[in-house]
Amino acid sequence: MSLIQRLSVLGMAAMAMGLVASHDYGAALTKSILFYEGQRSGKLPPTQRITWRKDSALRDGFEIGVDLVGGYYDAGDNVKFTFPMAFSITMLAWSLLEFGQSLGTDLQHSLKAIQWGTDYLLKATSVPGFVFAQVGDPYGDHNCWERPEDMDTPRTPYAVSKEFPGSEVSAEIAAALAASSMVFRPINRGYSARLLKRARMVFEFADKYRGSYNDSLGPWACPFYCDYSGYQDELVWGAAWLLRATKAPYYRNYVLANIQNLDKSSSFAEFGWDTKHAGINVLVSRLIKSQTPEPFITNADKFVCSVLPESPTVSVSYSPGGLLIKPGGSNLQHATALSFLLLVYSRRLSKDSRVIHCGNVVATPARLIQVARSQVDYILGSNPLNMSYIVGYSKKFPERIHHRGSSLPSITQHPQHIDCTGGATYFYTDNPNPNLLTGAVVGGPDIKDSYADSRADFAHSEPTTYINAPLVGLLAYFKSH
I need a surface site. Which of 8, 11, 239, 381 has the fewest CB within 10 A? Predict the structure, then answer.
């Protein structure tokens, strides 16, 4: 074990012994859900709580006669990318399905956050034979520093179709709608049924017309949200969620028949908006119990051993302060998503009265929970900088996040139009952002636990919807445990 890994283990052990200050998980939870109101596109409701945000993109899709108003901006820009948006909704729904009973007064806001997304996904799949994968020209948008309320860059809609398929984005929408249908089933059966019906249709479309949207929409979707892992994992992921929502043998058989199509290398340790392998294994391990040994349980166990810092087969890195690190930008997406899977799988292990053997290391359900909590606590401020990476939580948090709306004065303060280049002054200033995007979780520190708090350093300072989504479930659990 490397020195960094040993330090990480010691840091986690200290946390387990209560040597680290406790956190207000409930307050962090409330803020992490509030963040989604700051990412809303479209006509904002009277109940909007982040009031510096106003209506935006009210004519999306109108040029082609389709209503594509609504949904979420994925990060600090003003483009609507359906692939990561749908994954964020899937994870919000999963958070509620697992830990919704712990949400308390935040439940209603969580449901609204999900429905803001599912309402849009219904619009994006409303034209037979088409799935709208994106709204907005990312190159035009990224060359400007404009408030969403001021956008004058092209709002071009991009769709996949029978001739130009996009199985990954379509199947992820199916997963989001199926998962969300279960969330709404106890409270709005009509809406739940509508989501599930659409999920089935979109999944059939994704499966029948197979292909990656890289090939059709690559010039616009890449390099922002290219699908690097292929679309086979989304097809199995979508089928798994439909299996959980319907218990239909068709989806069970589909999962079993198509699981061998997934990459057999180290992908069992991957999970995020692009690669679903670890999530599939954790999800399906509770749904299908037929084969011995069960491949899903075997691979879910291998996933755990790839994350635990003391495991001989660990495949992630840890910073000296104990943060899980993987290559690429927006690292906290890995810390939240993988921790969420550890927490969910720990419950499966407890139910089965089972432990995992990683070589000579024994991983108990309690150890999985401990590692997940160490990541949450790091994000909340138990780190070498004593800094929260959730905007608005604790006394010290990122103040110069890479986010157009947050960094530019609100329309209330500055009603005049700010054009494409007019925002540059605000981008380059050292002043804190004038608008607090409460609850936003940024990309996070580097492998040495350092954080520059610079708008220009977008790989570390930009928030995204898919960083927050798994964190909602984690915070709900730790709030009540």
Answer: 381
Burial class (CB within 10 angstroms; exposed 0-12, middle 13-18, buried 19+) of 437:
buried
* String of DSSP letters for 391-439: TTSSS---SS-S-HHHHSPPTTT--S---TTTTHHHHH--SPPSS--TT
DSSP characters over 33-84 = HHHHHHTB-BS--TT-SSTT---B-TTTTGGGT------B--SSSS-EEHHH
Give the residue carrying structure tokens 């409701």. Answer: 45
> Distance of CA 294 to CAs 33, 122, 281, 298, 414, Å?
36, 35, 10, 6, 60
Who wins on pLDDT, 302 or 268?
302
pLDDT at 315 over 50: yes
Provide the CATH number for the domain formed by 3-480 in this structure. Answer: 1.50.10.10
In the annotation, is 399 catalytic? no
Catalytic one of 402, 403, 449, 460:
402
460 in catalytic set: no
Q: Which of 168, 172, 227, 462 is catalytic?
A: 462
In the chain, the largest separation of any two C-alpha atoms, in whole Å, equals 66
Rounded CA gap, 208 and 9, in Å?
47
Structure tokens given for 464: 């995204």
Amino acid sitting at position 210? R
128-153 burial: b if 16+ Cβ within 10 Å, else e: eebbbbbbbbbebbbebbbbbbbbeb
Q: Region 112-117: what's the mean pLDDT?
A: 98
Report the distance separating Cα 357 and Cα 363, nearest Å: 6
Q: Is 294 a catalytic residue?
A: no
Predicted local distance difference test score (pLDDT) of residue 19: 43
Domain layout of the chain by residue ranges: 3-480
Q: Which pair of structure tokens corresponds to residue 353?
A: 């009265």
pLDDT beyond 80 at 256: yes
Q: Which pair of tokens denotes residue 61?
A: 């899709």
- In sequence order, what are the beta bridge partners of 158? 134
Contacts of 322 (CB under 8 A, 6+ apart): 7, 8, 11, 12, 15, 374, 375, 378, 383
106, 227, 453, 460: which is the annotated catalytic residue?
453
Evaluate if residue 304 carries a pLDDT over 80: yes
Residue 295 confidence (pLDDT) above 80: yes
Give the pLDDT band of residue 17 (cuts 50, 70, 90).
Answer: very low
